[in-house]
Design a protein that fits this description.
The chain is of the alpha+beta class. It has one domain: Beta-lactamase (3-Layer(aba) Sandwich). 36% of the residues lie in helices and 21% in strands. The strands form two sheets. Strands 1, 2, 3, 7, 8, 9, 10, 11 and 12 form a nine-stranded antiparallel β-sheet that branches. The chain starts with a strand and ends with a strand.
């Protein structure tokens, strides 16, 4: 494995940890422009895959069939925080498809916004699968099954027609053979795929082109438009993807994934960026991503931007006292 240093963690003035990983920056044709470490490292896409998992539904006219709004399309691509706006939107999607929470197969967890707010739920608060960060994606899955008359209870089975259609669309978006997609199961129990990091970057370069993309055209246009118009639904308040998309509204589309994966598509530059932290620790991901954007000339000083707090995050202890910081060390090589 060929990994490069992406970020370092200091405690006081002393270096404590170093996070390594890989970066790939490609154009809309898949040509590698910049790299750090192995740009073709086989990487599970995790939640960065969500816009492409929505492709069968979008290509089949699902939004028109069920009257899905741009907000609801955005939530299909989301790792949402479980805020009220997210839960209400998922409920609307399920209702339009004639489904409800018990049809979901994503499981339940404490909503992400509690961690962002550094607080715990009270004993009176209770959660169900609507609060799962992937519930919007799963609502879209169910709507596709309703539209096409496919079984609902087995919609996550890799052999299900929905999942077969997703696999085909993912391969097409990434410019890769289906046989070269390595399969696994995601945290929400849906099939997920590993691909070379450079192929993930290509998928986002193409997504960012929207209507101008020659293969997916209006479908990518609808996905890109929904995600960039409603970034607060794609992630949530205090989240990095929201900050990336707010920094360049209507130009950058961003989606992170578990185990230290980040993808960004840049419409104006015609490029896609994919980053993987080798040890899976997301704390290294965001300062590294900011540094990558700066090194390829897409971002200047960040102090007055929504990315300010993500460029040099503080390390805080249990009393919320600052005890260190995380700094990018990534150095891109131009190809």
């Amino acid at each position: 494995m060929n990994f490069a240093p992406l970020a370092e963690v200091t405690r006081g003035a002393q270096l404590e940890s170093i996070h390594h990983g890989a970066v790939a920056v490609v154009d809309v044709h898949g040509n590698l422009l910049y790299r750090a470490g192995d740009p073709h490292f086989l990487t599970f896409t995790r939640s960065t895959l969500k816009p492409f998992q929505a492709l069968p539904f979008m290509r089949g006219g699902g939004p028109a069939r069920f009257g899905f709004t741009t907000r609801e399309i955005a939530l299909m691509c989301a790792s949402h925080s479980g805020e009220a706006i997210h839960i209400e939107t998922v409920q609307s999607m399920l209702g339009k498809a004639g489904c409800d929470e018990h049809h979901l197969r994503c499981g339940c967890h404490v909503p992400i916004h509690y961690g962002i707010e550094n607080r715990l739920p009270t004993a009176e608060e209770h959660f169900n699968q609507l609060y799962n960060n992937c519930s919007g994606k799963h609502a879209g899955f169910l709507a596709y099954c309703v539209q096409h008359g496919h079984p609902l209870d087995s919609y996550l089975d890799p052999a299900h027609p929905l999942q077969q259609a997703i696999r085909e669309s993912v391969a097409q978006a990434a410019g890769i053979s289906q046989h070269d997609l390595a399969a696994g199961i995601d945290g929400c129990s849906a099939p997920n795929y590993a691909m070379p990091l450079s192929r993930l970057a290509l998928a986002y370069a193409r997504l960012a082109q929207g209507d101008k993309e020659p293969v997916f055209g209006s479908v990518f246009g609808d996905l890109f438009g929904a995600m960039t118009s409603h970034p607060e639904l794609v992630s949530g308040h205090g989240r990095a993807d929201l900050a990336f998309m707010q920094t360049a509204p209507g130009d950058w589309v961003a989606k992170g994934g578990a185990e230290g994966v980040q993808a960004i598509g840049i419409r104006s530059a015609g490029i896609g960026i994919a980053i993987k932290v080798a040890d899976g620790n997301a704390r290294a991901l965001y300062p590294a991503a900011v540094a990558v954007l700066q090194q390829i000339g897409l971002l200047g000083a960040v102090d007055a931007t929504p990315l300010a707090s993500w460029a040099h995050p503080e390390v805080r202890n249990l009393r919320r006292l600052p005890v260190g910081k995380i700094s990018a060390t990534v150095r891109l090589a131009k190809i």
